[in-house]
Amino acid sequence: MGNIWGTRLKAAIFGESHGAAIGVTLSGLPPGFEIDMDAVRREMARRAPGGSPLATARGESDDVEILSGLFEGKTAGTPLCAVIRNRDARPGDYGRYVVRPGHADLPVYRKYGGYADYRGGGHSSGRLTAPLVFAGAVAKQMLRGVSIGARIYRLGGISDADAEPERVVEASALEFPVVDADAARRMKDAILKAKAGRDSVGGVIECAALGVPAGWGDPFFNSIESAVSGMMFSIPAVKGIEFGDGFALADMTGLAANDQMRAEDGVIHFMSNHNGGINGGISNGQPLVFRVAVRPTPTVGAEQSTVDLSKMETVTASFGGRHDPCVVPRAVPVVEAGLALCLLDFFLGGWKK
Amino acid sequence: MGNIWGTRLKAAIFGESHGAAIGVTLSGLPPGFEIDMDAVRREMARRAPGGSPLATARGESDDVEILSGLFEGKTAGTPLCAVIRNRDARPGDYGRYVVRPGHADLPVYRKYGGYADYRGGGHSSGRLTAPLVFAGAVAKQMLRGVSIGARIYRLGGISDADAEPERVVEASALEFPVVDADAARRMKDAILKAKAGRDSVGGVIECAALGVPAGWGDPFFNSIESAVSGMMFSIPAVKGIEFGDGFALADMTGLAANDQMRAEDGVIHFMSNHNGGINGGISNGQPLVFRVAVRPTPTVGAEQSTVDLSKMETVTASFGGRHDPCVVPRAVPVVEAGLALCLLDFFLGGWKK
Amino acid sequence: MGNIWGTRLKAAIFGESHGAAIGVTLSGLPPGFEIDMDAVRREMARRAPGGSPLATARGESDDVEILSGLFEGKTAGTPLCAVIRNRDARPGDYGRYVVRPGHADLPVYRKYGGYADYRGGGHSSGRLTAPLVFAGAVAKQMLRGVSIGARIYRLGGISDADAEPERVVEASALEFPVVDADAARRMKDAILKAKAGRDSVGGVIECAALGVPAGWGDPFFNSIESAVSGMMFSIPAVKGIEFGDGFALADMTGLAANDQMRAEDGVIHFMSNHNGGINGGISNGQPLVFRVAVRPTPTVGAEQSTVDLSKMETVTASFGGRHDPCVVPRAVPVVEAGLALCLLDFFLGGWKK
Amino acid sequence: MGNIWGTRLKAAIFGESHGAAIGVTLSGLPPGFEIDMDAVRREMARRAPGGSPLATARGESDDVEILSGLFEGKTAGTPLCAVIRNRDARPGDYGRYVVRPGHADLPVYRKYGGYADYRGGGHSSGRLTAPLVFAGAVAKQMLRGVSIGARIYRLGGISDADAEPERVVEASALEFPVVDADAARRMKDAILKAKAGRDSVGGVIECAALGVPAGWGDPFFNSIESAVSGMMFSIPAVKGIEFGDGFALADMTGLAANDQMRAEDGVIHFMSNHNGGINGGISNGQPLVFRVAVRPTPTVGAEQSTVDLSKMETVTASFGGRHDPCVVPRAVPVVEAGLALCLLDFFLGGWKK
After folding, report:
1. Cα B327–chain centre separation
2. H-state helical runs in chain A
3. C34-70 as b/e, with b when 16 or more CB fall inside 10 Å?
4. Lower CB density within 10 Å: C or N end of chain D?
5. Is the pLDDT of residue D352 over 80?
């Protein structure tokens, strides 16, 4: 039952990549909030393949139909169900028993005894991030005073320039969200090169939130890091996360890792942000900053050794289908959406609102 | 309400560092399981300071009193509550308003409006990991066929040797769990040097689980990575986590990152384990492998700039107290315990047991 | 967030009476179960108005579209989302500010600040029981060895004959589920008379489950009675519930109220079933028996005093719309469905399966 | 896992009747609330046997030790754990295999495979209501503006006089909470007579809450009736519940059952309260009123037929032990406590606070 998320705000997702539809039911949304559907569509478009040569050829417009919970353009306070029909499904592209390396095919087969929809990863497909982006787009709008943005921090071995959180949030508005234009160009080349070579590349996404007040998050199991990491690892292909300086903190001394403070006119100023705006799992008033590692798309054109489960035999197979040579750009709005959901849940649920 | 964890197995922790006691109530434990209390005590001792010059001088024996749920030495199937009294509390060591940089002091003050117990971090203290180790010790015993172990992968900038998961699990039995004896010696020196310099050091812990069958974990919000990361970020000082090759995967190509397979006598063999035994959030039958980054202890003897909240003035303060110059060694059994809890929850809850 | 139910089996409902659609997402269903869709449709038809003069004139066929979680006719193990379009909505029948006595109109208006869909009760409508019946129909099929049935125990002041649980389950198959044919006739007359008088009548439904083994249910907050009552009070118009002899037990002595036992050939036989098959919240192996009180439909044609919220003035109003003169017959399959969901949750979740 | 309750406010109970201790961990309590421990003790004393000839001879003072979450007399915002030691346990009074009719002995044995503590009902004992009363006492204090009270509505076949909710709340302060002094006398006689005859009696408790604003409760699974009934059926011996006129509503017509309204100076007045202050699961601003049926104590001195599970043989046994000839008086504060917890959860969690 990994499909239901949240404590006060809840999201229940459903759907398979090549089934009838995918969607989400959101509950706990406060009533009376006017949803800007154009802004929602813009977020959906950021994730949708959109005909870019950098992305899959699957042509899904990801139109959202809202079945409930919205009345006269405003949230009703009741469960909001949004459905996205699968329009360009090609279930025939997929074989049932020859499991694709790097994908969930084998574990899913084992878990569900072979009854799960195997076509294009079924329920485990990255396509299920579309309802997340919808939900996150709504959450973003509701988080007044909080700005969320993400950028490609690294892709195919190429790093973007260092950037302050404010700059990261700004960059998220770019069509290809990278601070350094030259790095952006080289990253795109890396994607096209991987595509040409029937291979794929991965990367790292950096996400920031500005305007989060001190006091959000709970100690221990609902720390900001626990909640956000739990959400991020729900995004297919994410294999690592670090907050603030993250793994680099492990090599620092305590004195260097601490963010010292001073008071000025009744306001606390931090002299650094090594801890990504979070101490003891709770926001300290600084910008939240974290990075997630995205593995390269497992579907590659090269021949691989794998197993045909129907015969339990080794086979060599090449997997075509329509796939992204790199999911990092399309994952950027998903990461933002995931953070928005977590923050709205904290906003709605904490002592400190 | 970050104190309650789990889906089928649940743990509800409580306590403050310098209050009367800390503890945990476990529910969902299957009945009729004989708990080896000696093994539990050994795990508790691994985390307890124990008079080592590498650790805090606080002398807590961490004796566990079981108040319920254990009948005639076996689990009763009913909630098991375990309490650990705080015996060597020295609440006077802590000031109320001068917040310690790097600690949760400021966010906790903001969150709870100054009503939370501030002494030694109160509820946010690393001391709360003692009940987690107790719970994990019970979980470990119940996970028949699964072996869990962790080692110090890096400490104070010094790396341990690379090691297979089997070797990691073995190393966890060492008093100072490091594979390479020379690296171990240098790490200890780094801790003592940091202590002498009134500073602290951090590190990285690598954890592995052998014997996890394919099919544990759920897609999306209850993926193994989601569950384990949520648990790990509940451990104070953890700031990053990566599964399998983690952040290094971001720089690999899809073909290199995939774990190819072959079948042999009806058994599937993987030719690598770049993904840490998990695909699409579900175990694939390989060893689970992940690493967590542990920041250096924030309490350091050097003078730091911070704020006195009672006057909202900048002050320069040095924080004494009894603290660990490096929490990494004591965090090793905590990481193992956290994984054991997650895996038992999956074992008890999934289709695939 | 009252729209998500369950512990191991979860149901997330959504929808408004005169919105686009209503539906449910079920998660935690075991994979590989072939759903008999004809049986599902039969259950849906039992609840649907169906043109009976005893029911509302609203013509909803309640066709279910399954969007996910069903693959090749069998449960996939992934979330199963079912949607029912509202086809015969007549939102114009309802006024916004003149709240209907006995309905949720006033509390909903207060709760959601006037933003909830008010038309026909919106999300609070009895129409939302259609997805519950769908979910229950699936659950019933999965509960092999357990038979669930309900009958009208009392309606408009007329009582059905006493009946053993087996007889109750049998009667549930009747078009008008009453044991005593004469009582059935008089009950129907009572409904038609109420309809003619522009009034409505209520009643009591008795529900039984055969084949539940001893050991289902948990002590305290997830007792069978807690779970079942929580579900039953989710059904609009239910205002009371009693298990076994229920309120009559309050007047008995302990000796009379106890169900004594004897052993025969290794099997325990009870000499009575005053406690409805449940002791201490856990099933004892006897048939489960409970009754729910259903208040008369609040929508009546007679003039009533109420308030126009837009002006905060007293008004006298008569509420037409299309409504049931008695919801008891249509509530029978809803009660059964609710019990089926609770029992499947226990079956999937308990030690004792 | 029936031991954890709540959505925003959570209670995790533990303990066995003749084990070391019983207790509860409350999480989600707002910080900074000064708990009146004298008021808590008064509530505990209402439930404690206290040497009355009407109650068990077990001498438990039910002293509460608070282990965490209370700092300088005020709630800290962190988990509050309260422990009550069992001081007058007499485990030797109970046999292991001869199950007591009317008790949970048999189902518990089946559920936990014989591993649960059988002594005095173990975890399923009414003794576990002591932590509930503690929790409820705290909740009552936090519910400013809301008054909760209950009285014995019926006992041993003797009814108390009808009374308005205000009168019910007043009566709850009485040592024997009955409105009509003559009825009180006869009820006490009924208890003493049952005790003399080695039998027991049951009854009905009526509970009311004044001051609950309109808008608490959620549609469907978290309706006020769902939440309150789920809590009430957690109290051992409760077998029925009805809200407002409850089962009597089933015999009324819609017009008679509706609570009509009028507006006066901007305030809505109801002309009756047949629905117990709740419509569609949500409070309407009127007093909440409900009644619970309490079965007679199952432990009676008379000989009963039952089964010795060790031999699967029928035996005739008489069960001594120390028990209450009637638990109704002691259950009154438990019912109030349960309602207080439910209402505080709604207060903390709803849109409408």
Report:
1. 10
2. 37-47, 105-112, 129-142, 165-171, 181-196, 224-232, 254-257, 328-349
3. ebeeeebbebbebbbbbebebbbebebebebebbbbb
4. C
5. no
Residue-level pLDDT at B350 = 61
A353 band by pLDDT with thresholds 50, 70 and 90: very low
Angle D93-D96-D101 from CA coordinates, rounded to 5°: 85
**Separation of alpha carbons A192 and A326, rounded Å:** 9
Type of residue at B284: N
B268 contacts A305 by C-beta, under 8 angstroms: no
**Which residue on chain A is closest to C80 by alpha carbon?**
A14
- In three-state secondary structure terms, D271 is coil
Residues D203 and D192: their CA atoms lie apart, in Å, by: 15
**Helix pair A37-47, A129-142: axis angle to 10 deg:** 140
Q: State whether ipTM is beyond 0.95.
A: yes
Query: pLDDT value at position D306?
Result: 97
* Pairing outcome for strands D80-85 and D21-27: antiparallel
**A-C contacts at Cβ under 8 angstroms:** 166
d(CA C265, CA C255): 26
pLDDT of residue D92: 77
Q: Is the Cβ–Cβ distance between B152 and B328 less than 8 Å?
A: yes
CA distance B100 to B128: 19
Which residue in A352, A339, A144 sits closest to A225, CA to CA? A339
How many residue pairs bridge chain B and chain C with CB atoms within 8 Å of each other?
A: 11
Q: What's the CA gap between B169 and D211, in Å, rounded?
A: 60
Give the integer Cα–Cα distance in Å for D171 and A105: 65
Residues 6+ apart with CB under 8 A from D130: D22, D44, D47, D48, D60, D62, D84
For C91, the token pair is: 């939102």
* D67 vs B contacts (CB less than 8 Å): 14-15, 19-21, 23, 83
* B106 pLDDT higher than 70: yes
pLDDT in tens, D4-32: 999 999 999 999 999 999 999 999 999 99
Using a CB-CB distance cutoff of 8 angstroms, which residues of chain B are in contact with residue A252? 202, 295-296
pLDDT tens digits, one per residue of D211-259: 999 999 999 999 999 999 999 999 999 999 999 999 999 999 999 999 9
Among all residues of chain B, which has the CA nearest to that of D124? B78
